[in-house]
Amino acid sequence: MFSGIVEGTGKARYSAGKLYVELPFKVKQGDSVAVNGACLTVVEFDGKTAVFDVGEETLSRTNLREARLVNLERALKLGDRLDGHIVTGHVDGTIRFITARRSGNTTWMAFEMPRERWGIAEKGSIALNGVSLTVARVEANRFWVQVIPYTLEVTNLGHLRPGDRVNYEIDVLARYVKRIMEAGV
C-alpha cells in the first residue's frame, strides 16, 4: 500500500526484463517501491541503484519500458499517516497527457479519459504516475487535475509533454463501490 505522496524521482532504464532505477533513499532486497505508481519488489540494491524484475503484465499496463525519470515512493508502514489516498500500486493502464495551462499559482493538467470512465468523478481521487491527485473537472473525453507548484517540482509531472503516456490507477474505493453495485447488494 502507498499514499501517492511521492518521495522523489530517479533516473530509470529498462533492459531485458529488469528495471534499473537510481533511488534517492535506501532500500533493501524484498522492499516494495512504487515506481511511477507500479508496485515493484527490490531484487538488488547497491546503495544507489535498485534493480526490479518486471513481468510482461506490468510492462503491458505501464510506461516503465520507456520511462526515463520515474516517481518513487516506499510502501507505507502500519501506523503511518495517509496524506494522499489509498494507492495499491496495481496500475490499471496508461493514458495520454493532453495539455497544461497555468492559472494563478497552480497548473491545470488535462488527460485523456481512461476506459474506466466510471472511476473518474469530480472531487474523486486518481493516481497518475503514482501521484495522488484530485479530479477537478470531468469532460466527455478528458479530465483535469489542478497541480500545485510543489508537486510539479518534486515529481515527473512537470516534465510531461503532450502525448506522453502516464500510468493511472483508479481509486480503490470507487472500484469496490462499482463492484457492490454490479452485484446488486
How would you describe the overall organization of this protein?
By secondary structure, the protein is mostly beta strands. The protein is 13% helix and 42% strand. The chain contains three helices and twelve strands. Strands 1-2-5-4-3-6 form a six-stranded antiparallel beta barrel. Strands 7-8-11-10-9-12 form a six-stranded antiparallel β-barrel. The longest helix has 12 residues, at 172-183. The chain is globular and about 45 Å long.
Summarize the structure.
This protein is mainly beta and 185 residues long. The protein is 13% helix and 42% strand.
The secondary structure category is: mainly beta
Number-wise, the strands total 12
Largest sheet: 6 strands, antiparallel, barrel
Sheet with most strands: strand arrangement = 1-2-5-4-3-6
End-to-end CA span: 27 Å
The portion of residues forming beta strands comes to 35-45%
Helical residues, percent: 10-25%
Sketch the topology as an H/E string, one letter per element: EEEEEHEEEEEEHEH
Low-pLDDT sequence parts: none
Mean pLDDT over all positions: 95
Our count of helices gives 3
Please give the radius of gyration in angstroms. Answer: 16 Å
Based on the structure, what is the oligomeric state of the protein chains? single chain
Shape label: globular
